[in-house]
Specification:
mainly beta, 11-stranded mixed beta sheet, 6-stranded antiparallel beta sheet, 25 strands, globular, DUF4249, DUF4249 domain-containing protein
Length: 387
Amino acid sequence: MSLNKFGRSDILWLKAVLIIMAMTSLINGCIEPVTPEYDYEDGLVFIEGFANTIPGASFISINESVTEFGIRGLSFITGATVSVVNMDTGAMVDFEESEDTYLSPSDFMVAPGDRWKLSVTLPDGRTYESEPEVVLNPVPIKEVEINYIKELEYRESLDKFISGHKIAVSFDDPAGAENNYYWSYRTFENLDYCIRCQNAIFRNGACTPYDLSNRELRYFDYICETDCWKIRYPEEVNIFDDTFSNGKVVSKLEVGTLPLYSKENMVVEIQQFALTPAAYQYYKILKDITDNASGFNAPPPAALIGNLFNVNDPDEFVLGRFTAAASSLANVFVERANIEEAPLESLQPSTISTEPTLASPYPPPPTQLAPCEESRYRTAIEPVGWQ
């Protein structure tokens, strides 16, 4: 259960910062067998896009590296014109800005055999495109196992092991062809409270600033007026190639972890993508960067070359990639009421603060409900498999 208006994984930020730090070291000179020095550079554009066969699930993220108040990070670029183009039919589909992402129409999806490219024009006129991407045929998932692990992984920031689940899949790898796989997932957890307004009250569809200095808890929580589900995404890159399993049964392959953020029941939607060799090589290097256990002092990985370019400036280095891929799906309901370990996100009843409905001192009308706003991280549409 979460009180944040918008929930999201920080994996995109982490990936981009690591990529930028690694790539600036590679751009500035040849690799020497010495400890590298990473020079963070502002103004680098990072574009990550994924078009897939799930209706409405395609997205494009556009960010720029920035340093604000001495802190290095990413800034979402608003006001861009974003579209994907079918190279065979000429059909163009526009994406709309939503929070920190550009989303496809709810009915948009790609199909095996399609060829798509991405086109992005920034507010300052810079235009970026991708090389065409061919959508391959998906490989069906045969079976999914989701197992609870009390000590899932060690979190250095918390100085302890955290609990959670591991996802494992089984499938038949097609014989006679090179097959490359990428796994992603979405988890859906039911929300009770949709919005927390800090030093504000919820009026006319938004948190309106209001002086709450006379209260111990200087915020109000608002109950979701309809059923609502929080959506989470992976925090790691999960890939696999069939070099040693071509034409065989792949059984109980671990493809993801689910940290115990809450003990709400959830639906896990596992997506198994079929990648082109070029896309696989990109995600392999990305995995090497984000999973490098040796930290920043490890030797730099190979250059992370995506398929994006500046139409008017071929010398500009553009980080990221546009991928179009078909996926097979599996939805699993996970009951978590009997888990004893504490979740990472805890919500105590004593921290809930709702507006009074009687003799309210706040501007009318007294409000306790808020809408479930559709986004990449939240939905009022019941997920498949929900119980």
